[in-house]
Design goal:
Layout (H helix, E strand, L loop, with lengths): L1 H12 L10 E3 L8 E8 H7 L4 H4 L5 E9 L5 E2 L9 H7 L9 H7 L8 H14 L17 H11 L8 E6 L2 E9 L9
Parallel strand pairs: 1-4
Antiparallel strand pairs: 2-3, 2-6, 5-6
């Protein structure tokens, strides 16, 4: 499962809002970034297009936290910055904010360490940012969504989230199936263009 999770994270990190292709610039000083990308996996689509996630996919939940990723203007992103290792207590406390609690073992070292925050502050911010995005009522079901649904998904998210703009939102697909929505946020959690 670990390899599948890492492969998914790498693939999804390459698909950024605005169509830009992201480049991993590697380690930077923690906190040296411009904005966040909040990645919300659409579990029914993710589970329909991915194998190796039996526990997570037993009952797909809808939109779930994939990650909160520090980004640089232009679409590149830092990774694996200097930061403390997670403790067992932090893994236990914060792992459940992800659909698959083991994802914490990838998200903190690759993305969280670049935030410049402590692990607890980073996971609190991740939880707060997820809660600040209103999931449109039409997308709380567990339906498989297709590429032709993207205009309706985009319109619904923009209508449900005051201040969100088309330039700050992207719907991603794999093999024509919707797998993720990413939203760009300021460091303070406000919607912004990507």
């Amino acid at each position: 499962m670990k390899n599948a999770t890492l492969a998914l994270s790498a693939a999804l990190a390459m698909a950024l809002p605005g169509g830009a292709q992201a480049g991993d610039v590697g380690k930077r000083a923690p906190g040296a970034f411009d904005y966040y990308v909040l990645a919300l996996s659409w579990e029914p689509g993710f589970c329909a297009t991915t194998t190796g996630h039996a526990d997570e996919c037993r009952a797909p939940k809808g939109f779930v936290l994939h990650g909160l990723w520090p980004q640089l203007e232009g679409g590149d992103y830092p990774s694996n910055c200097d930061g403390p290792a997670l403790t067992a207590d932090q893994r236990q406390q914060w792992g459940p904010i992800y659909a698959d609690p083991s994802l914490i073992n990838h998200e903190w070292p690759k993305h969280g360490t670049c935030s410049g925050l402590t692990p607890n502050a980073y996971f609190q911010l991740s939880s707060k940012d997820v809660a600040a995005v209103t999931i449109p009522a039409a997308y709380r079901s567990r339906a498989i969504l297709r590429k032709n649904d993207i205009p309706a998904i985009t319109k619904a998210f923009l209508a449900a989230n005051h201040g969100m703009t088309p330039a700050g939102l992207r719907v991603s697909t794999r093999n024509g199936t919707v797998t993720e929505v990413t939203v760009c946020l300021t460091k303070d959690g406000a919607f912004r263009a990507c």
